[in-house]
């Protein structure tokens, strides 16, 4: 019944109401038809019996005297003027026809036997008959259906009067009945269809309006409202919908406010972060320079003094002490240089990103005793200095993580152009970790820092890792900043 469920509401309500009306009127007309027919049949039989009785009263003597001509006159007179009487026959007690009104032969199918139930003359049958005042037989002849009413004369001892009636009039009345009924049914059905359609409209129209308004809300138009309806259920629905739309409007305004505030806050954070990073870089640069220029120079002078001291008059124990002092100073100087380079690699400014990275990766491999491969696609990619610096810092953080957490034997660093972007990939074969469950907060500041740097420059950052599967950090940044 899928078609029924998908058919329009108008169609369905019309089918239900009109077919109910139709069913009711068919049932009613059936009952009325049967009732009317019974009534009319009784009327017809009564009329037949009356005519039969009056003929019996008039002709009883003539039957006994076998005055056939008189009987014929009586029958013909009784029939005259009555269209529904097809024939009258007068028979004697044995059933022999004494007179009849058939001018031109008997109709085929005429019953010859008298119907049971009538009083019978013992002389005719040898056995007693019934007590009925008259009996009715229905039969079909070549002229159509007939009803024959048989009235006994002197309780059947003298004879019988047979009155044949046609059912034509009765049928005509019944047909007229049915016609009237059909006409009324048609009118009522039409009225019902009009009422059903109006009713359906009263139900469907507000639902249509509601659906349209819901569609508007789906498209974000929260200002839409439904005109109030005076029907109880529909009215409640409309006002509930309007309340909902009003709430949505209010919430939307609130969200808009919150979003604006959030955007402002985010923009401030971005500016702050940029500032922090640039201040950090400046600070690193300054400290690096100071370490190199000031502290480095002082230590270099100290070394020169120690050299001078050693060249002078010193005891052997003093020489040994100075020697130890000298190697200590050399060690501190080396540490200072390393720190200065870590803070601000001169190679990045002087030579460019690829040599600076190569140097850093080599130094890392040497220090940590693992295999590190640097595979740049291009020796001198054209990059914005901020992008180069970010890539360098991300490489530093990634390799520091490899050293601190990965327990890796090998690490591979790739640098390749991808359309307008440059992509840095650092992958190790270490123990890996569940990157999907990266804890927020203090524990993951390194990773979030890389993420932030990438986002600040309009790039993307991905970290793929699973326990036992190594770790890959991939960052793609636009080569030029707009
Ligand atoms: N290459 C790596 N191999 C294995 N685990 C790593 C690697 N890089 C990061 N991790 C894991 O991610 C965590 C967060 O890293 P990070 O944000 O850099 O913080 P931190 O290095 O200060 O611990 C680390 O504690 C470590 O568990
Ligand atoms: Mg880290």
Automatic annotation (TrEMBL):
<dbReference type="GO" id="GO:0051539">
    <property type="term" value="F:4 iron, 4 sulfur cluster binding"/>
</dbReference>
<keyword id="KW-0472">Membrane</keyword>
<keyword id="KW-0597">Phosphoprotein</keyword>
<dbReference type="Pfam" id="PF02518">
    <property type="entry name" value="HATPase_c"/>
</dbReference>
<dbReference type="InterPro" id="IPR011712">
    <property type="entry name" value="Sig_transdc_His_kin_sub3_dim/P"/>
</dbReference>
<dbReference type="InterPro" id="IPR003660">
    <property type="entry name" value="HAMP_dom"/>
</dbReference>
<keyword id="KW-0408">Iron</keyword>
<feature type="domain" description="Histidine kinase">
    <location>
        <begin position="290"/>
        <end position="481"/>
    </location>
</feature>
<dbReference type="GO" id="GO:0005524">
    <property type="term" value="F:ATP binding"/>
</dbReference>
<keyword id="KW-0479">Metal-binding</keyword>
<protein>
    <recommendedName>
        <fullName>Oxygen sensor histidine kinase NreB</fullName>
        <ecNumber>2.7.13.3</ecNumber>
    </recommendedName>
</protein>
<dbReference type="GO" id="GO:0046872">
    <property type="term" value="F:metal ion binding"/>
</dbReference>
<dbReference type="GO" id="GO:0000155">
    <property type="term" value="F:phosphorelay sensor kinase activity"/>
</dbReference>
<keyword id="KW-0547">Nucleotide-binding</keyword>
<keyword id="KW-0902">Two-component regulatory system</keyword>
<keyword id="KW-0067">ATP-binding</keyword>
<feature type="domain" description="HAMP">
    <location>
        <begin position="201"/>
        <end position="253"/>
    </location>
</feature>
<keyword id="KW-0963">Cytoplasm</keyword>
<dbReference type="Pfam" id="PF07730">
    <property type="entry name" value="HisKA_3"/>
</dbReference>
<keyword id="KW-0808">Transferase</keyword>
<dbReference type="GO" id="GO:0016020">
    <property type="term" value="C:membrane"/>
</dbReference>
<keyword id="KW-0411">Iron-sulfur</keyword>
<dbReference type="GO" id="GO:0005737">
    <property type="term" value="C:cytoplasm"/>
</dbReference>
<dbReference type="InterPro" id="IPR050482">
    <property type="entry name" value="Sensor_HK_TwoCompSys"/>
</dbReference>
<dbReference type="Pfam" id="PF00672">
    <property type="entry name" value="HAMP"/>
</dbReference>
<keyword id="KW-0812">Transmembrane</keyword>
<keyword id="KW-0418">Kinase</keyword>
<dbReference type="InterPro" id="IPR036890">
    <property type="entry name" value="HATPase_C_sf"/>
</dbReference>
<dbReference type="InterPro" id="IPR004358">
    <property type="entry name" value="Sig_transdc_His_kin-like_C"/>
</dbReference>
<dbReference type="InterPro" id="IPR005467">
    <property type="entry name" value="His_kinase_dom"/>
</dbReference>
<feature type="transmembrane region" description="Helical">
    <location>
        <begin position="12"/>
        <end position="34"/>
    </location>
</feature>
<dbReference type="InterPro" id="IPR003594">
    <property type="entry name" value="HATPase_dom"/>
</dbReference>
<keyword id="KW-1133">Transmembrane helix</keyword>
<dbReference type="GO" id="GO:0046983">
    <property type="term" value="F:protein dimerization activity"/>
</dbReference>
<keyword id="KW-0004">4Fe-4S</keyword>
<comment type="function">
    <text>Member of the two-component regulatory system NreB/NreC involved in the control of dissimilatory nitrate/nitrite reduction in response to oxygen. NreB functions as a direct oxygen sensor histidine kinase which is autophosphorylated, in the absence of oxygen, probably at the conserved histidine residue, and transfers its phosphate group probably to a conserved aspartate residue of NreC. NreB/NreC activates the expression of the nitrate (narGHJI) and nitrite (nir) reductase operons, as well as the putative nitrate transporter gene narT.</text>
</comment>
